[in-house]
Amino acid sequence: MMALLQRVSTARVVIDGQVVGEIDAGLLVLLCAECGDSEVECEKMLAKIGKLRIFSDAAGKMNRSVQDMDGRGTAGGLLVVSQFTLAADASGGNRPSFTAAARPDQGRRLYEYFVAQARRVHPNVQTGQFGADMQVHLVNDGPVTIPLRMAPEPHQ
Question: Is residue 10 annotated as a catalytic residue, yes or no?
């Protein structure tokens, strides 16, 4: 599973001219399920995202997580957007291959699982729409952009 995190001061997803998800300060999470991923990778990714210290403390150091952005327990928003193109492989030519991305049915299932788990543990989770043509608007704060990858567990 792959994610590209962008620390934002604001972000929104628009589909057919309608805002479907919007947050103020927090994280835009571009999420890609890959072949072989399962719920295990979703849970690991969510745990890492929740604890990653990429928000500034009072001294200006990146020392706070999205769960505690202000040091008083105030959580920032999460805007989770499916993006299979994170799995692009352009090493073989000029047209990227997406064979590493999970099949659409599996990708949707894992995306929906990730969002459901995020909503269980985080107070403000907004989303895009799986498989839709979306316009993502954001103000990257910093800018801070962090790529994450959780490799599938080896089968026993």
Answer: no
